[in-house]
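Q: What would this chain look like folded?
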Amino acid sequence: MSDNLIGVTKIDILDISGRLIKSIYSESVAAEISRINISGMTEGMYLLSASNNGKTVTCKFLVE
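A: My prediction, written as structure tokens:
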């Protein structure tokens, strides 16, 4: 996805069972880094799914 991050990127955070926890839309003008506030989330494993220009990338992350 880093090739074409211009435009709106939809970022979904899901719990490990696939339940949507948070959905964010981020406007990108270049290959910039977006910060996501995860304070208040309970400890555990989560999935982050980012979609932009018809491409989707999903990764796991851990809140401790």
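The two ends are 27 Å apart (CA to CA).
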